[in-house]
Structure formats: C-alpha cells, structure tokens
Fold:
Amino acid sequence: MAQTGEPLMAERCPPLFKLSGEGLTCLRGGRVVLQDLSFEAIAGRPLVVTGPNGAGKSTLLRLVAGLVSYQAGTLLFAGADGAPVSDESNGYLMHYLGHQDAVKPALTVVENLTYWQRLYGARVSVGEALGQLGITFLADVPGQFLSAGQKRRVNLARLLVSHRPLWVLDEPTASLDQEGAEIVRGLIQRHSAEGGLTLVTTHLDLGLEAQDSLKIARLSDVPLEGGA
Amino acid sequence: MNSWTQMIVTQLRRDLKLAARLGGGGLLAVAFFVVLVTLVPFGVGPEPALLSKLSIGIIWVGVVLSTLLSLDRLFQADYEDGSLDLMFLSPLSLGVLVLAKCAAYWITTALPLVLVAPLLGVLLNLPAENYGLLVLSLLVGTPALSLVGAVGAALTVGLRRGSLLLSLLVLPLCVPTLIFGAAAAEGHMSNFYLLGAVSLVLVVVGPIASAAALKLNLG
Structure:
C-alpha cells in the first residue's frame, strides 16, 4: 500500500539548494528570544547551530519548520537557481526531529514507522531503516517498552523511511550512546553527500567533515547597544 | 489526489488501532451514558408515563454529555509526544487530519452510544414508534457533536487540565444540535433537515476552525 504513492512523493519533494534567514526576530511570551539573526545553509554542507542553554537554538529550528512564527525578518527556501520554492511543496520540504520522539506507546516500532512512512511517502523500507540504526531486534516491540535512546533511534529511522531535502534536527544525539552518536554523524554525512540540507543543533562535537557553523549568543549576554 | 485518500485512510486506521489498543475511551463513554440514564428514574420517579415523555430528551442529553467525556484526549496525546508537529509538517493538511481524527473519534465513541441508545429507550419506556427516529437522529446529529467538540479540544490542547474548560466551551455550542436532534427524534421531520444542515456545516467549518486553533497552540 505504501509503495503505490512512491514515485509521486519523490517528485513532489522540491530540489532545495539554499536555506537562508535574514534579520530574524522572534518574540515568545513577550520576551525577545532571537534578535536580528541571519544565517545561510547550503546543500551538502550541514549547518551546525551552537550556543548556551536558552540562546534560542530550538526556537530557531522550530521557526524554520514553521512551528513558531517570527515578528521580523525573512526566511527563504531556494532552489539551485536561487528562486524560492513554491508553496505547493509545503509538506514535502523537511524532516523535523525535536525533543519529543513521537513514538506511540501502544504501537510497535514497525507500526510507528509505517505510519510516518505512509504519511510522508516511501523511500527505503522500514526494515532497512531499522537495520541502519542498529535496532532490527526492536521491530515488534511496543513503544512503551523502549528506552529513551531506543526511542530516539526509532525517531531517527523516520528520517530514512521517507525522503526530504531538508533535515531540521534538534539535539539528535540527546540520550544516545557513543555508537548512536556515530550513526547520527554517518546519517548527516550521507544526507549531505546526496545533496541534502541539514540544520542541526548540538552540544557534542559531531565531527562532521564539511560543516558551517552558527553560534547564537544568549541575548542577556549581549551588551544592550552592541550588535550580536 | 489518490495519495490524499490514502493518507486519510492511514490516519484513520492509526487512530482506530490506538483506540482499540488503549481501550477506555469508547467503553467509558458507554458506561457513563448507561449510568447517567439509569439515574434519572431515581430522581424523577418511576412513573411510566412521565418517563416515556422525558425519554428522548434524557437520551439526547446523555449522548451529548457522554460524547464530550473523553474529548480532551483527541489531540492531547499527539500534542504531548510531538506527533502533532510532524503531522503539521506532513503533506496532509491539518484540516483534513482533523477530519480523519474526528471520524475515528466518532466511530470509537459516538457510534457505540448510538447503538446502546435503543436499549436505554426500553429502560425509559420510549414509545415504540420513536425507536427508529431516535437512532436516525443520533446518527445524523452525533457527527456534529464530535466536530464541534474537536474545536474545543484544539483550543484547549495546550492546557494541562483543560477538560472542564473544554466542556464549558463546547456545551453551549451543542445546543442547536440538541434542540434539532431531540425534536427530530419526536418525529418532527423538518428538524431532521436542520439537524443534517448543522452536521454538514460543521463538516466544513469544524476542521478549519480546529486546524487554526491547533496551529495557534503549536507556536
């Protein structure tokens, strides 16, 4: 059933070359979280966002995902020709991986992933994705019996079962072991090599080969009149 | 558009599967409905003529209250575990998603109530000619209850103890459905049309309003 939609889905994903933000300002609960932030991420070079707790890294990622609205600035998703991608590709642009793993306790790992695959469109099979994350043995285990790290791996497998040109990853290595972090590094590396865009926040040094970095300072650390 | 139907079916199947595995929701509503209706004769007295006169109203009010019982969980579980973020980013539009979730909710919660209603009719000495009309009016009217309830559920999704607020928000909005539904079950045919109209309008307006409220709560 999942296979029937496959070619259609792959076609709908727009070729994405550049993601850029210009003077982004975001207020949450009456407090300025991001102020006049500009950045640029290019296909093939993952953009690693770092900064202290509370600097607004997660807010920036949710803003890129459209889950948080911003008050000033522009956000541009552009193809190789520099033209913005069309609105029709909404829903085909990105994978978002947040703090919560969206794993249903009552469904098995395979059922959880199959659901997301049907919603997002198929790329590799669920079984293969589980293999790449090293959790094939968890296939028939209900989500409620998974550890935090295992849930995170299931959530990471979601990035593989469907194709999206942009990956927005918020602390993907959180609660993962050394081997898991290594797998995440490999996934991002491969996604970049395939021409994918990645926006990732992290406290660990992922050791990515070709990366751009963006440091966000906590606003209270910035002197009032000085620029960031 | 083929893939859309496929995604709706996917969503519906997942919600039905979750409801079946978790249990509770639908059965709880039925149990609440049965208890509520059985309590009434203790309050008003066991006089058959009086009960017969009140039966349709009691059953309809019971259905309205029972439908709202587990409504607060409609979006909350998906909101809390981050699934709602991912649904928002998927190709499926939020309005269509809401419609699929309402359909699942209706099947698991409202449909059992509709099926139990005739049995409770016996308990309340419902006039024989009204059984068919009662079931029919409930079938036409309960989708409206689920859809209007979804708007309330979407508005209160971010609140920790939102269920009371949800009831306060939604119950007044259920009044038209209740009036037309009860009158339709009495056999006033024009009310059937009005009841159907309420449901049809809500099929369009409900998901749009719910989607807007959900979007607001995600931010």
The mean pLDDT of chain B is 91. Chain B has one domain: 2-218.
